[in-house]
Amino acid sequence: MPGKPTKPNTPTHFIQAHQQLIETGLYLGDMSFQDTEPQGGARKCLPSPPPDDSSFDLAPISTIVQIDSNDYWLTADANYHGPSEIWPDFAIIKPSCIVQMPNIMPFTADWANVMDNLCWLQDAIATPEFTTKQGLFTTAGPCGPRFRLHHVLFKALDADDLAMQDGAGSGVQSDKDETNDLDPIFSIENWPTFSDAARGGLDSLRQMHWVIPIPAYDLEEKLIDPHFYHHYLEGAVVELHFNLSHWSISRQGIPGKDVYTADIVMMHVLVPPCASATPHIPLKRKVSAYIHPDSSPTKHPKV
Q: What is the domain extent for residue 166?
C-alpha cells in the first residue's frame, strides 16, 4: 500500500528532491557532474563541434539556490525607469536576480560543487586564447560565491503573426495565441508595470511583441502571477533549471572576451521568503500554468 505523500519543506522532502536531481545527470551539485555521460549527463551540455559563430545554448542544468534579496530585479518590468546604458529600450529588458547558496541541507553541502562545475562549464566552452569572462559570476556575498540569472521577457512577433494581424482580422489566432494559452493576466495587454516609463514602453510594444512570463512556480506548482513576483521569489529557496548561453566578442585591437548568461528555464519555489497571503490567480498555458510531470526539466532528456 503506498505511503502518504511527503509534505513540502520537510527534511525528507529535500532529500527526495536531491536524489531526483542527481538522477537527471544535470545537477550541478553532483560531484560526478563533469564525468557523467549519456542520457542527459554533463557531456550533453558541451556541443561538439561548436558552431561556426561560437554561439550556442547548453542543455538545461539544475541546482537549488536562494534568491538574494539584496540584488533582486526579477519583476514584471525589471524596475525600468527610462532608457539607460544597460536598458536603452524597454523592449530588450531582462528581469534578473542574483542567486546564492541555500541554507538547506543537503544542498548547502553541494554548493562548492555547484560553483566548481559552473566554472568548469565556462572553461569548457570558452574561446581559445581569450582570457576575459564576464556576465555569469558576480561579487561574493555573505553566503559566498553567487551568480546571476536572466529572463528574456519580450519577443518580437514574426512575419507570419504580423501578416495575420494585418490581413485576417482579429478572429484569426496567431502562433503567439496558440502557444501562450494562459489566463489573460499573463498577456501583454494586461502585463503589469510599476513606473510611468515602463507603462509608456509597454504601450509601444503591444502591437509588435508578445510577452513570455517568467517560468516561476509556487509551492502548489502554479505559475506565479506577475504582479507578485517580488512577494513569492525575493529571498525564496528555489529549484532552478537554466540554460548557460555563451558568445564571444572580438574586435581588432581589443582583447577578446567570452560573455555568458544564465537564462531561466524554470524555477520552482521550495521555501517561500515568508508566509504570503497573496491570493492565487486561476490559470489555464508557451509557459505552462502548472509543472507537468512529463515535461519537467528534471526528466532525462532524450538522446
A: 11-271
State the Cα–Cα distance between residues 119 and 103, nearest whole angstrom. Answer: 22
Nearest to 20 by CA among 301, 299, 302, 303: 299
Q: Dihedral through CA 40, CA 6, CA 224, CA 148, nearest 10? A: -50
Give the count of domains, the chain: 1
Burial level of 251, CB count in 10 A (0-12/13-18/19+)? Answer: exposed
- Can you name the residues that pair with 248 across neighbouring β-strands? 258
Is 37 inside any structural domain?
Answer: yes
Angle at 264 between CA 284 and CA 208, to 5 degrees: 65
Q: What is the pLDDT of residue 38?
A: 44
Length of the chain: 303
CB 261 within 8 A of CB 73: no
Residues of the chain with pLDDT under 50: 1-5, 38-41, 48-57, 168-175, 177-179, 275-285, 298-303
Reported for 40-49, long-range contacts at CB under 8 A and 24+ positions apart, including other chains, are 40/300, 40/301, 40/303, 42/117, 42/121, 44/301, 44/303, 45/121, 45/244, 46/121, 46/124, 46/125, 47/125
Domain membership of residue 51 (yes or no) is yes
